[in-house]
Structure formats: structure tokens, C-alpha cells
């Protein structure tokens, strides 16, 4: 059954809110990485390709938030700065750290979208189809990042663990705030 105006499902509102916040954060992370790396190297071009996909994900959820009248996260200004800083700092450490950041984030986003798909079941096909489609691309980003040397980053397990922890916290608060 697809969504129609008047459907007020608090759980689904929270899903749209956190997904919009996450996709917005993703665009800011890649913007931070590209600000440090420039746009000339092959890796920068690859990141730019992923950033364009995040831009489409974000635009979709922006539109859904407006159409459904979902309150967006109040933390947008924070994700703006925190996402950009995470991207810029990891890119400044080096290309492997930038890739480790992407691998860590996309690992958590894959799990997050998997949980949403399980929760949605056969309901809200509009949201479910988008999440399923975007999840495929997030998995590609994760695999690309690992193939591009994420695991060569200095202190990879620590870096990856910290970023994943931060990402989980960001997901938890963006559902509600
Ligand atoms: Fe995305
Ligand atoms: Fe992504």
C-alpha cells in the first residue's frame, strides 16, 4: 500500500526525517573531501560520482519531506558542519583515510536501510522502493571505497570504529530531533 496524504504514521515520518538527514550528511562529507582533494585526481573524480548520487538521494528525501509535511531534523546546521569536517579531516589524513570514512559510513547506512526495509515490509511502497534503490548504491560506494584502499588507512580498525559509532549516534538522534 502506498503513502497518501492524511496517512500519519509517526514511524514513517521518523524514517523520512533520518533518511533526509543522512543523505544530506553524505553530501556534506563528500563536499568536505573534495574541498581538500581538489577535483583533478582519479580518486576525486570517483568521489564526485558518488557525491552526485548522494545529491539525488538527498533531493528525493527533500521532496518527500515537503510533500508529506514531515518535520525535518533540527540538526541540519550541525550535520552541515560535522559532515563537512569529517570529510575534510579524513581527506587531509590521506586518500586511504578518506576511503575508510566512506566504507565505515556506508556500512552503517546499509544496515540502517536494511532495518528500515524489514520494518516497512510491504507497506509504503514509495518509501520502500527508494530505500531499496538507494541502498544498492550505498553498497556500491562501500565496495568501491574498500577496493580503493580503505583498509590501508593508518589505524583502520580504530578510525573505522569511531566513524561507525558516530554514524550510529547521528542516526539515533536524527530520528527524533
Ligand atoms: Fe545516499
Ligand atoms: Fe552513499
Would you mind describing this structure in some detail?
By secondary structure, this protein is an all-alpha fold. The chain has six helices and no strands. The chain has helices at 10-37, 42-68, 76-93, 95-120, 125-147, 156-176. It is globular. The protein starts with 9 loop residues before the first helix and ends with a helix. The model has no long low-confidence stretch (mean pLDDT 92). The structure holds fe (ii) ion (2 copies). The site of one fe (ii) ion has 6 residues, from α1, α2 and α5. One fe (ii) ion is lined by residues 23, 26, 54, 57, 134, 138.
The secondary-structure class comes to: mainly alpha
* DSSP helical segment count: 6
Q: Mean pLDDT, rounded to whole units? A: 92
SSE pattern: HHHHHH
- Biggest sheet character: none
State the share of residues found in helices, binned by percent: over 70%
Please state the overall shape, judged from the principal axes of the Cα atoms: globular
Radius of gyration (CA) equals 16 Å
First-last Cα distance: 28 Å
Tally of strands: 0
Bound small molecules, which ones? fe (ii) ion
Strand content: under 5%
Poorly predicted regions are: none
In short:
The protein has 177 residues and is mostly helical. It is built from six helices and no strands.
